[in-house]
Amino acid sequence: MPRLSLTAVAVAALVAFAAPAAAQGSCDRACLRKLGEDYLAALAARDARRLPLAADARFTENGSELALGDGLWGTVEGLLDYRIFVIDSKSGNVGILTAVTEAGHRAMLGVRLKAPDGRIREIETLVARSDPNSGFPQAKELKVRPGLVEPLPAGRRVSREQMRAAADSYFVGLERATDQGVAFGPDCVRMENGMQTTSNPDFGADMGKLDCREQFATGFSKFITRLRDRRWIVDEETGVAMAFLFFDHAGTVKKVALRNGTTMEVPFPFNRPFSFELFEAFKIDAGKIREVEAILTEVPYGMKAGWTAEP
User: Fold this and answer.
1) Which is nearest to 191 in space by CA: 270, 76, 108, 258?
2) DSSP 279
3) Spelled out in words, what is the top-level CATH class assigned to the domain 149-299?
């Protein structure tokens, strides 16, 4: 697909489409879900002209503002079945965790669309491409955990504010290198780039065998020197809060004193400057973190997302 300015795409879309949600002046849960599905279908077809865009719409990929049609739009080969939607109808956002094929390889893809009136104003994407030299590998197989996407029974739901606070306690715990105050449920499981990174004897030697709380309790996270630019969307129906943020690693922390009295040598690549960009979703069940699902990729140290305000 040729690269098009967002203005050109918007004009084409406005002529070609008359979205009912836009005419009503709002985009409800079903509308946002359809826009997410339509975005992925347009991406697979490499045809952004299918999308109903606002005239001032912006598109970023891994923090860089691009013309729609550039980046992954020009190289994507197909969509994979792994797909998680986080729908925040109050803020007019839909977040998607999914995967695609590109250049014969799999790439993890995070998408955030903002379309409060049915016209897409913001397109924020994160592409985590396979890299054997990266600090984070990808799983061989991708599976969506049903519990993450199923509606949460009303009796186990908490307010938007409580959901966000519970999820944010995870990042506070990483910042403080402690499990104290983190709203972990007893059965918390974390997946990153499709790989189970807690309670998994095949990941990360001894650290990978530990559950969510046990990992935090070791105090291992002191080599993460800053967590920044946290932004959120909240899906009250499924009980999922989704964060968009960066982990900075200055590379200056070479050893970490763990709570059990031992010392951990900080491994590569965490012993040199780089950042992780993350889209991270938290299932909040009765105010506790039950499941964590993240897409992350290595980016230049200190890089910005290209978005400065809450979604």
Assistant:
1) 108
2) E
3) alpha beta
**Residue 278: beta bridge partners?**
245, 296
Q: Is 93 in contact with 76 (CB distance < 8 Å)?
A: no
Task: Say how far apart CA 220 and CA 207 lie, in whole Å.
Answer: 9
Domain 6-129 listed as CATH 3.90.1150.10: no
Which are the contacts of 184, defined by CB distance < 8 A and separation ≥ 6? Answer: 170, 212, 213, 216, 288, 289
175-182's contacts with Cβ under 8 Å and 24+ in sequence apart are 175/221, 175/224, 175/227, 177/216, 177/219, 177/220, 177/221, 177/222, 178/216, 178/217, 178/219, 179/213, 179/214, 179/216, 179/217, 182/213, 182/216, 182/289
- In Å, how far are 72, 207, 248, 265, 274 from 271, measured between CA atoms? 30, 18, 12, 9, 9
Give the three-class secondary structure for 164: helix
Where are the extended beta strands (E) located within the chain? 53-61, 64-65, 76-88, 93-102, 105-114, 120-129, 184-192, 195-196, 226-235, 240-249, 255-257, 263-265, 274-285, 288-299
6-129 and 149-299 in the same fold = yes
What global pTM score does this model have? 0.90
Q: Rounded to whole angstroms, how far apart are CA atoms 50 and 47?
A: 6
The predicted structure's pLDDT at residue 13 = 43
Q: Which residues lie closer than 8 Å to 309 by C-beta, 6 or more apart?
A: 231
pLDDT digits (tens, 9 = 90+) for 210-258: 999 999 999 999 999 999 999 999 999 999 999 999 999 999 999 999 9
* Owner of token pair 């780039």: 193
User: The sheet that has 120-129: what strands, in order across it?
Assistant: 64-65, 53-61, 120-129, 105-114, 93-102, 76-88
Domain-wise residue ranges, the chain: 6-129, 149-299
User: Prior bond to 273 cis, omega within 30?
Assistant: no
Contact between 118 and 53 (Cβ < 8 Å): no
Express as a percent the part of the chain with pLDDT over 70.
Answer: 88
